[in-house]
Amino acid sequence: MKLPILFKTLSLLSFFLVPPFSMMASIPVIANTLNTLANTEQPKRLKLTLSGHTEPVRALNLSPSGQVLASGSDDKTIKLWNPTTGALLRTLTGHRERIKSIVITPDDQTLISTSFDNTIKFWNTQTGKEIRTIAEKTGVRAMLLTPDGQTLISGSGDQTIKFRNLKTRKIHRILKVEATALAISRDGKTLFSGGENGGKIRVWSLVTGKQLRSFTPPLPKKEDLINGSERASAPITLAVSNDGKMLLCGGYDDSFQSGGLRSTDGKSFKAWDLKTAKLVHNFSLGTSIDALIISPDSKTFITGGLGREIILRDIKTGKPVMELTGHAGGIYGLALSSDGKTLYSGSGDKSVKVWQLES
Q1: What pTM value is reported for the model?
Q2: How far is the C-alpha of 98 from the C-alpha of 347, rounded, in Å?
Q3: Residue by residue, what is the 3-state secondary structure of 289-356?
Q4: Tens-level pLDDT at each residue, the chain (359 residues)
Q5: Which SUPFAM superfamilies would you find in this protein's record (predicted)?
Q6: Residue 329 lies in a domain
């Protein structure tokens, strides 16, 4: 090809592939500001990736002191990490089935875990040795510690919530109610439990053991019904804001189903104002919510689920303010530092990631 013809051909190609500036000025720019923010800040946000589990990470807990990060996996092990350096401290082995939940006592000395092997195990975090095991006939579906670290509260498949004194090792209270999720107020005086009964959430006094009130999600609107029997799903996770104003609920979402296959109301996220008892939010986040936490300042909530993104949202409006991407699997565990600046996430991709939310 002659040189002048080549230049002419390249000029025509550049015109169609890269429009002149005058034409570009007239082309509307459509940008997702949330994704743009996430993409530009992603390298700064992601600080560490902790690898070592051989199966999905389902449970995550940061000790009250912030010195120990614990992860529980489908590989039946629990790993203890240095949350600052990412160094693996030790691996706890002894459960026969995948790990469901983890809590650590305020003194950092004891880790308590539940598994699908229907046991609760107590471990010494300094030695990694198992201290004792409690067998449950029907397994534990939810578990938490009171803020003072003296009482273990567990919701079992036998439709009871048990209160176990950690010093005496005795059960001193039993509530006969189903619990798929539990949450407790910052002052340790109020317990929240959610179950299968239409997604109802019950509020309990931990002083008297009596039910104070309950929150029942509204029935779906007729125009939203597919088979006519949809109801709110049982809570997978509950969270209460530190200021005591908001109760958040994450659940199963099958809104993508069609042809009468849908069983839930398709609303994976719900929130109540605890002072007015009004339902503030009731919408779908596009996926089931497996992990849900609230920032220490009670202004933001963070969710993770079958989608691979971690989304931070404004607690009042529900609108996203930040998106963290990098996991290659669903997000099943979240933990937040006490100052709200560092986030930890456990995923189906078998890893734990450490994110810097604020400098």
Answers
A1: 0.86
A2: 14
A3: EEEEEECCCCCEEEEEECCCCEEEEECCCCCEEEEECCCCCCEEEEEECCCCCEEEEEECCCCEEEEE
A4: 433 433 334 333 333 333 333 333 332 322 233 333 444 445 489 999 999 999 999 999 999 999 999 999 999 999 999 999 999 999 999 999 999 999 999 999 999 999 999 999 999 999 999 999 999 988 999 999 999 999 999 999 999 999 999 999 899 999 999 999 999 999 999 999 999 877 899 999 999 999 999 999 887 676 666 666 677 889 999 999 999 999 999 999 887 776 667 777 878 999 999 999 999 999 998 889 999 999 999 999 999 998 899 999 999 999 999 999 999 999 999 999 999 999 999 999 999 999 999 86
A5: WD40 repeat-like
A6: yes
Q: What CATH number corresponds to the domain at position 290?
A: 2.130.10.10
Q: Does residue 14 lie in a domain region?
A: no
Residue 2 lies in a domain: no
> Residue written as tokens 């203890």?
80
Q: Count how many domains the chain has.
A: 1
Closest CA to 180 of 203, 205, 199: 199
Encoding tokens for residue 79? 């790993």
Flag whether 17 is in a domain: no
